[in-house]
Amino acid sequence: MSSLQQLAKFRAPSQLRMGGQLGRCPSCSFSPPGAVRASDLGRSTTEKAISPKLTCSAAAEKSGSFAFTRVVDTEGAARGPGTGPVRAQQMATGDASDPRIAGIAKSIRVIPDFPKPGILFQDITTLLLHTKAFRDTIDLFVERYQGKGISVVAGVEARGFIFGPPIALAIGAKFVPMRKPNKLPGPVIAEEYSLEYGTDKMEMHEGAVEAGEKVLVIDDLIATGGTLGAAIRLLGRVGAHVVECACVIELPELKGRDRLGDTPLFVLVSSA
């Protein structure tokens, strides 16, 4: 069962509560007060994967096409998996006491009902407005990867383009953009990856990364892990070694790290 399909499970109908219009499960006719596409949580780019139609967990197990989100807020505010206020996560270095992490978490704004009703969007633009939090974010990544022999920082479209270049400059690596189809001029190589209802592609320039190079892949957020997984495979095809994937935010309930294979994942903060 995929990580997206696992989201279809819930404990009881009374726990289902999200913003949006009333719907009816086509399998059992249960009508919860709204649901949200799981892959829209915190991101609205290429990981759109679950039908906006409603169904219960039994139907989802059969079709693999639907998901509900469940209430976890004690005050009744709707919240989906991994979409609450971000919190400091245990870092891969074992140092969760670094005060910079708490400052970064506080600087990330959560926007309700964007881009659709029922979604709480993890907005990193407020982090960019907070110069100390932005600098601390870059510094934490640089401190981790400085002196590790990394020659390439690959940024995933689009917000990986924000964090990737300053990290690359600081550690003496080149920056390689990994883009959606038909965005890069000249010869490219592409990697296709699966969505729930189709496929998408990620592209990079031919010759941008050479065999044997050590690569850091960076994005702002990991949700289902589809785009990061595609980046790892694409870089592997040219013989590069992905040392690690790094993100500012993780939505752990979407289990995106499960799609990264043996490649380690490093994140600064995690959604509550």
Automatic annotation (TrEMBL):
What Gene3D superfamilies does the annotation carry? 3.40.50.2020
Q: Give the main localization category.
A: cytoplasm
List the subcellular locations: Cytoplasm
- Keywords of the record: Cytoplasm, Glycosyltransferase, Purine salvage, Transferase
What CDD domains does this protein map onto?
A: PRTases_typeI (cd06223)
Q: What class of enzyme is it?
A: transferase
Pathway membership = Purine metabolism; AMP biosynthesis via salvage pathway; AMP from adenine: step 1/1
Transmembrane spans: none
* Its EC number(s): 2.4.2.7
> In which domain of life is the source organism classified?
Eukaryota
- GO BP, one example? purine ribonucleoside salvage
Which GO CC annotations does the UniProt entry carry?
Answer: cytosol
Q: Name one GO molecular function term.
A: adenine phosphoribosyltransferase activity
Domain Phosphoribosyltransferase positions: 130-262
Keyword Glycosyltransferase on entry? yes
Region feature Disordered, mapped onto this chain: 76-95
Record SUPFAM superfamilies: PRTase-like (SSF53271)
Q: Does the keyword Cytoplasm apply?
A: yes
Q: Which reaction does it catalyse?
A: AMP + diphosphate = 5-phospho-alpha-D-ribose 1-diphosphate + adenine
Query: Which family is annotated?
Result: Belongs to the purine/pyrimidine phosphoribosyltransferase family.
- NCBIfam families, alphabetized: apt (TIGR01090), PRK02304.1-3 (NF002634), PRK02304.1-5 (NF002636)
Q: How does it assemble?
A: Homodimer.
The molecule here is called adenine phosphoribosyltransferase
Species for this entry: Punica granatum (Pomegranate)
